Amino acid sequence: MGSAFTLLLRRCRWLLFLLGTSRLALAWDYEFHRMVNQLALRSLPADFPSWIREARTAERIAFLAGEPDRWRNMADPTLRHINSPEHFIDLDDLPLYGLTPATLSPFRHEYVGQLTLARSQDPARFPGADPTRDPEHNRWIPGLLPWRIAEDYARLQSTFSSLKTYELYGGTTDEIANARANAIYVMGVMGHYIADAAQPLHTSKHYNGWVGPNPEGYTTNRTFHGWIDGGYLHKIGLKIGDLSGRVRAARSVWERLPGASHEHLFPVVMGYVVQQSEGVERLYQLDKTGGLSGDGPAGLAGREFLSGQILRGSQMLGDVWFTAWKTAPTDTFLQSQLARRNGGEGK
Questions:
Q1: CATH number of the domain that residue 305 is part of
Q2: Number of separate helices (H) and strands (E) present in the chain
Q3: Nearest 10 degrees: CA dihedral of 231, 232, 235, 237?
Q4: Are 272 and 197 in contact (CB under 8 A)?
Q5: Model pTM greater than 0.85?
């Protein structure tokens, strides 16, 4: 009796959490974030460094997929201020600011400036802030997810640049090991955000039940996001083995947007995010027809759609990792420092 009561209590607490939660606590369950990182690792071609496939390294990268959500468990408003908006982008709120995906600055602070300018020019169009409901001072921002992904790509490219230079120009064993550890960390953490973008509800104001005019009669249930993120996938028993045979080899991320300047990854990221946003209404349609219940054959209709989203996230992640490695240049400053230390040219 005691164990049954404890289980019931836990379930009730979870339900209350879902009913009271804000978007700050919504993301793929940890198991499915892990899955995206693991599938991305399987996509890496044979000429990618072999050390990345070592069991302890692969487990570290999989574990780090959950790190940004662990940051969200802290109540510190400073951490929440910067971290929370990095998990989403409400594309359907951009027109309110006179913006489109094509007109967004690739630079985070310029983008915030674009938002601030629009709000200052026509304040009547924007609801007033309620400080009691916004202790992190960030809920007016439509989201920062694409900027985080593009910035992480640059971080990873820089990390690989240092690693290659240590390996080629006389770095010590410890320096190479530490540079690898840095790369592992960035690879693992950035997977979280790319996976978030693959969950369509992270791209819309309709992130947890339909809001505003609702002519199609879609659900307004405030547990909808949590059900998509894990409840449904756990109920149908989705496993990594169901998807691993469908992963293609990683390739240049620039193939996703031919002709794009390689100076900024941001347009490629925005293209990826916009593509995933096309699935928002599809999720609501599936729910309306019972395809997300998990009960009987009809209730499994959402399985292929959500499996496809996890695969899209893992393919994007693998492409980003692969491209960052392939394009990482020699760190010429570090090279000169190693030369001086090792008694070579430039001393």
A1: 1.10.575.10
A2: 14, 0
A3: -110
A4: yes
A5: yes
- The structure tokens listed for 4 are 């049954």
pLDDT in tens, 304-334: 999 999 999 999 999 999 999 999 999 999 9
Would residue 105 count as lying in a domain? Answer: yes
CB 252 within 8 A of CB 316: no
Euclidean distance between CA atoms 105 and 194, whole angstroms = 19
Name 190's Cβ contacts closer than 8 Å, sequence gap at least 6: 149, 152, 153, 155, 156, 317, 320
Ramachandran region, residue 213 (left: φ > 0; alpha: ψ -120 to 50; beta: rest): beta
pLDDT of residue 259: 86
pLDDT at res. 8: 37
Give the Cα separation of 47 and 69 in Å (integer): 32
- Cα–Cα distance for residue pair 243/310, rounded to 1 Å: 9
Cα(249)–Cα(265) distance, rounded to whole angstroms?
20
Look at residue 27 in the predicted model and tell me its pLDDT.
66
What is the residue range of 75's domain?
33-341
Count of CA atoms in the C-beta half-sphere (13 A) of 157: 19
Does the residue 318 lie in any domain?
A: yes
Is 5 inside any structural domain? no
347 lies in a domain? no
Tokens of 44: 């890496």
In the chain, the number of structural domains is 1
